[in-house]
Amino acid sequence: MRWRRVEIKAAVVPPKFWNQHSAIAPDGFSEMSFIPPALFPVVLLVASNLFMTFAWYGHLRYPNKPLWAVVLISWSIALVEYCLAVPANRYGFRIYSAAELKTMQEVITLAIFMVFSALYLKQPITLNHVIGFAFIALGAFFIFKGPIRL
Fold first, then answer.
1. Is position 104 within any domain?
2. Is 0.85 topped by the overall pTM?
3. Could you tell me the superkingdom of the organism this chain comes from (predicted)?
4. Does 105 map to a domain?
5. What is the pLDDT, as a whole number, of residue 141?
6. What is the DSSP letter of 66?
7. SS3 sequence, the chain?
């Protein structure tokens, strides 16, 4: 059976384009998946950002550890992050634009960092942080809104 190249116009891939003899669709999404294709890259981005936040900032709780050790550990954690981020962007690009993917990644990063900073690093979240993050979220809104017609 030959695969037909299909342009994806919606967030959901219609089953009629899937291989009838396989549980895997041509675009890599599983027929039996409990995660909708539009949500799949978001889940992967959240998971990758959890790892990346720990890779970048987790060592700050241990200032007495040697730099070479924290660099090695951070790079090990970052490898896992890349194993999640690359598929997130590859699958996500079939549904979202590059600007939308990057915007999602930034908003997810900030949300995870706020929680990480408060719970793991025990640093308070100030009103300045909340206002700054709100402005970034407002920017994300405009990215997803689409072209503004004047």
1. yes
2. no
3. Bacteria
4. yes
5. 84
6. -
7. CCCCCCCCCCCCCCHHHCCCCCCECCCCCECCCCCCCCCHHHHHHHHHHHHHHHHHHHHHHCCCCCHHHHHHHHHHHHHHHHHHHHHHHHHHCCCCCHHHHHHHHHHHHHHHHHHHHHHCCCCCCCHHHHHHHHHHHHHHHHHHHCCCCC
**What total of structural domains would you count in the chain?**
1
Asked if residue 30 belongs to a domain, the reply is no
111-133 confidence digits (pLDDT tens): 999 999 999 999 999 999 999 98
Q: What is the overall mean pLDDT for the chain?
A: 82
Distance CA 113, CA 103 (A): 15
Q: Over the stretch 80-94, which tens digit does the pLDDT of each residue have?
A: 999 999 999 999 999
Is the CB of residue 87 less than 8 Å from the CB of residue 121?
no
Rounded distance between C-alpha atoms, residue 63 and residue 105, angstroms: 28
